[in-house]
Design goal:
321 residues, alpha/beta, Quinone Oxidoreductase, Chain A, domain 1, Rossmann fold, six-stranded parallel β-sheet, 10 helices, 30% helix
Length: 321
């Protein structure tokens, strides 16, 4: 099979196409013939070694396709089943061996492409709004990177729950995308100080929650946007990791902060199934409207990463083997 492998940490150039035999199936594993692969920022963190995996490895934490073969002890899936997975490495390939306990059946009304485009980011949005913080009607929320893959979905779900959504984006074109997703206000952070703008919009009250996937460059000003006892949900670090800070930053307004991970919010089989089922339902009922950015073949995985890191993307990037 063809697979993208990493044998040293570094930039997009370390993503190299290999020819290799599919690994042998272990107890409880299922071999998937992949039809669509999601590209996510966690793949970048693995590639650079920020979240290190044992070298060499096949990156990619999200994919969808058909069951090709079952390993010993697998009884819940059979050849030809349409399935998807998230938060299990090895997706940048024509085939992937995935533990059956991490697999999800794709509903008939959802295409394989849709499943690969929504599962990881959709379940991220699910735990952000129904886990790290429970979004309620009339709450004011701030969503950074509102035109990005997670940002667009997060805006849509927050609006579904009745919240007032303020989003930040870098360009007028991206501001239009965030507005189309349902944002009530959009701040161009390259032109205006978003913390000052949030204060104006909220009449100096602040927001209940800030969803921050940017990290280093937004962290302290995100805290400034919160009302007393508000919460900063720091779920990414596209600008770099947040440096060490004093807890006194939180004490000034009795603030809360969490640094969650999808892995911990889908660790159990029951929770995984429940979150995925509602995400697929959101797609079927139109709560979530997916936006595709670009697709690439396996041979252009390097270009897919460059586009993701450039912040030019405005939707989901997929690799189609």
């Amino acid at each position: 099979m063809k697979a993208v492998r990493i044998d040293r940490y570094g930039g997009p150039e370390v993503l190299r196409l290999w020819e290799m035999d599919p690994p042998a199936l272990k107890e409880g594993e299922v071999r998937i013939r992949l039809e669509a692969i999601g590209v996510n920022f966690i793949d970048v963190y693995h590639r650079t070694g920020l979240y290190g995996l044992e070298l060499p490895f096949t990156p990619g934490m999200e994919g969808a396709g058909e069951v090709e073969e079952r390993g010993p002890g697998v009884h819940d899936f059979t050849t030809g089943d349409r399935v998807a997975f998230a938060m299990t490495p090895g997706a940048y390939a024509e085939f992937a061996n995935i533990p059956a306990r991490r697999l999800l059946r794709i509903p008939d009304a959802i295409s394989t492409i849709q499943a690969a485009a929504v599962l990881l980011q959709g379940m991220t949005v699910h735990y952000l709004t129904k886990g790290s913080h429970y979004v309620r009607a009339q709450e004011k929320v701030l969503v950074h990177a509102g035109a990005g893959g997670v940002g667009r979905l997060l805006i849509q779900v927050c609006k579904h729950f009745g919240a007032y959504v303020i989003a930040t984006t870098s360009t007028p074109e991206k501001a239009e995308i965030a507005s189309e997703a349902g944002a009530d206000e959009v701040i161009l952070y390259a032109k205006k100080d978003f913390s000052e703008e949030v204060k104006k919009i909220t009449h100096n009250q602040g927001v209940e929650v800030v969803y921050d996937s940017v990290g280093k460059s937004t962290f302290e000003r995100s805290l400034e946007c919160l009302k007393p006892r508000g919460i900063l949900v720091l779920f990414g670090q596209s600008s770099g990791p947040v440096p060490p800070f004093s807890p006194s930053l939180l004490a000034r307004n009795s603030l809360f902060m969490t640094r969650p991970s999808l892995a911990h919010y889908t660790a159990g089989r029951v929770e995984l199934l429940e979150r995925a089922a509602e995400v697929f339902q959101w797609v079927q009922t139109g709560v979530l409207k997916l936006r595709m950015d670009q697709t690439y073949p396996l041979t252009q995985a390097e270009e897919a990463h460059r586009r993701l890191e450039s912040r030019r993307s405005s939707g989901k990037i997929l690799i189609l083997p």
